[in-house]
Design brief:
By secondary structure, this protein is mainly beta. Helix content is about 5%, strand content about 50%. The protein contains 1 helix and 11 strands. The longest helix has 5 residues, at about 25-30.
Length: about 130
């Protein structure tokens, strides 16, 4: 089992920045390679892909809507993945979820169905 805990959400004005963190724990996470992803969801909508990073940090992908504004990174020594969000817009308002997918493959990291574990989410609200 893998436990994921997100933090860092909050209320920010448009144009501001936030950094989300996702701390992973559990014996499975320590013993296997995991790709990590960030997704977000607003009421009545499907959970949508934001960014993902493979287990070695050699590959990252982003949704078109956040390219150039968001940066995903990870610190494997701390079992933590980050999402730096700059130039935030009101349309970025959502609950942000961290996901973990077992394995070293980069295949289909943008698809939520590929992820094995999820955190509880952290709310990000961007005011105009």
């Amino acid at each position: 089992q893998v436990q994921l805990v997100e933090s860092g959400g909050g209320l920010v004005q448009a144009g501001g920045s936030l950094r989300l963190s996702c701390a992973a724990s559990g014996p499975s996470f320590s013993n296997y390679a995991y790709a990590m992803g960030w997704f977000r969801q607003t009421p009545g909508k499907e959970r949508e892909f934001v960014a993902a990073i493979n287990w070695s940090s050699s590959s990252t992908i982003y949704a078109d809507s956040v390219k150039g504004r968001f940066t995903i990174s990870r610190d494997n020594a701390k079992n933590t993945v980050y999402l730096q969000m700059n130039t935030l817009k009101p349309e970025d308002t959502a609950v942000y979820y961290c996901g973990a997918r077992a394995g070293r493959s980069d295949y289909r990291l943008g698809f939520k169905s590929e992820y094995d574990y999820w955190g509880q989410g952290t709310q990000v609200t961007v005011s105009s």
